[in-house]
Amino acid sequence: MAATDSLAIVLGTRNRKKVRELADLAGLADIAWHTLDEFPAVPTVEESGTTFADNARRKAQGYARLLGRWVLAEDSGLEVDALGGQPGVRSSRFAGEPTDDAKNNALLLERLRGVPDEERGAKFVCHMVLAKPDGTVVAETLGTCRGTILRELRGTGGFGYDPLFQIAEYHRTLAELGPAVKSCISHRGRAARALVPYLLDWAAGRSPRDRRAKMDDEVG
Ligand code: ITT
């Protein structure tokens, strides 16, 4: 890509809540952002992988090839310690399809019934992948966010498991914290910020040398 061309990237997700949370990224580099809503005929890429990384690559590469455009996609979900990492890549389909956040949260509470407070640790994970129009992966980032699973829902913001996911330092769930704070501390916000140097390089027509980065939150 010549340095004078402006880079246009399609967000490869059907989840509008994710699109909203990723909107901040749009202001960080001189890039024209698009969503899949602008391409209604494009089929949904199946998430048949067994890891977040695998599914994120499938989505980024799949939509890039289908559209012949640059695509940024992510796969994310919740890993609960007491459930051996479940629901993991099945987070959106935990209680069956189509995705129903209320049913997923109810099932999570049911599975954790009787589990003591000190064993209710969990981690949100987001694996993000940027692919070129031919499907070549040019950047991958990982963001995580640790918390604990409450015994009842609290808050109305966010989506998915947010009302059950409490951040220790804030004594609040992600659904109570609001979008700006969630963006600062969430798995998705961290993965997005780790991607910024790559976006700046690609937008300037330079290929970054190392295509992987991660921002983990394993402490506290
Ligand atoms: P796309 O595949 O089209 O991006 P999706 O909603 O199917 O949309 P995923 O397969 O990555 O996305 O599943 C994400 C699920 O993980 C989501 O449905 C929630 O249950 C959970 N999840 C991910 N990020 C979350 C967040 O920030 N807050 C709460 N739950 C989240």
Overview of this structure, please?
30% of the residues lie in helices and 25% in strands. A hairpin with a 5-residue loop joins strand 4 (121-131) and strand 5. It has 220 residues and is of the alpha/beta class. The N and C termini lie far apart (42 Å). Strands 1, 2, 3, 4, 5, 6, 7 and 8 form an eight-stranded mixed sheet that branches. The chain is globular. The chain is built from six helices and eight strands. Helix 5 crosses helix 6 (187-203). The mean pLDDT is 92. Inosine 5'-triphosphate binds at residues 13-15, 18, 47, 75-78, 91-92, 99, 104, 124, 158-162, 174, 186, 188.
Please describe the structure with a list of short key phrases separated by commas or semicolons:
Maf protein, 8 strands, 8-stranded mixed sheet, single chain, globular, binds inosine 5'-triphosphate, about 220 residues
What's the SSE blueprint?
Layout lengths: L6 E5 L4 H11 L4 E5 L16 H16 L2 E11 L20 H11 L9 E11 L5 E13 L15 E3 L4 E2 H4 L1 H7 L1 H17 L8 E4 L5
Helix pairs in contact: 5-6
The structure holds inosine 5'-triphosphate.
The site of inosine 5'-triphosphate has 22 residues, from strand 3.
**Tally of individual helices:** 6
> Which residue ranges are poorly predicted, with pLDDT under 50 across at least 5 consecutive positions?
none
Distinct small molecules bound, one entry per kind: inosine 5'-triphosphate
**Total of domains:** 1
Summing up helix and strand content along with how strands pair, one would put the structural category as alpha/beta
Would you state the CATH class? Alpha Beta
- Helix percentage range: 25-40%
Shape: globular
**Mind describing the biggest β-sheet?**
8 strands, mixed
Radius of gyration over all CA atoms, rounded: 17 Å
CATH topology: Maf protein
Query: Secondary-structure element sequence?
Result: EHEHEHEEEEHHHE
- Approximate strand percentage: 15-25%
**Total DSSP E strands:** 8
The second-level CATH architecture is Alpha-Beta Complex
Q: What separation lies between the terminal Cα atoms?
A: 42 Å
Mean pLDDT: 92
